[in-house]
Amino acid sequence: YYANYLKFAERARTEAIRECGIEQSVMLGEERMGFVVSRCAIDYKAPATLDDIVMLETELKQLGGVRMQLRQRLLREEALLSEVDVDVVMVDAYLKPVRIPEKIVTLITKKLKVMEPSNA
């Protein structure tokens, strides 16, 4: 079911950010800021079927002042099932965009795999 791909991508983004050492619930509670999705585009390449074991890779495309662009690839073994391009924006408690704190930028760029430039 195609909508589940977006659920898988959301969970993988949360886990990728957690692996960077960032607890989003703590950041929201203590610093009153967090990431929200501002744009998402998905390309479906092949279907997943019941009982498939899938893996989702998350790579950093670009990291700016308030926005982070990610590419996520849903795979079944070596088969590409979908690609998701997603932009997340750092917002404050009033949902206004704010600059991503330098300590978060450092953690993300240190741990998150950076996409290789395309030759296209």
Draw up the topology in text.
Blueprint (H helix, E strand, L loop, with lengths): L1 H18 L4 H8 L1 E12 L10 E9 L3 E10 L2 E14 L9 H10 L9
Antiparallel strand pairs: 1-4, 2-3, 3-4
Q: In brief, what are we looking at here?
A:
The chain has three helices and four strands, in the order H-H-E-E-E-E-H.
Keywords:
120 residues; alpha+beta; four-stranded antiparallel β-sheet; 30% helix
Sheet with most strands: 4 strands, antiparallel
- Spatial ordering of strands, largest sheet: 1-4-3-2
Choose one word for the global shape. Answer: elongated
How many helices? 3
How many strand units?
4
Q: What is the helix content?
A: 25-40%
Q: Helix/strand/pairing class, anyone?
A: alpha+beta
If you average the pLDDT, what whole number results? 91
What's the N-to-C terminus distance? 31 Å
Residue fraction in strands: 35-45%
C-alpha Rg (nearest Å): 15 Å
Helix and strand pattern: HHEEEEH
Give unreliable regions as ranges. Answer: none
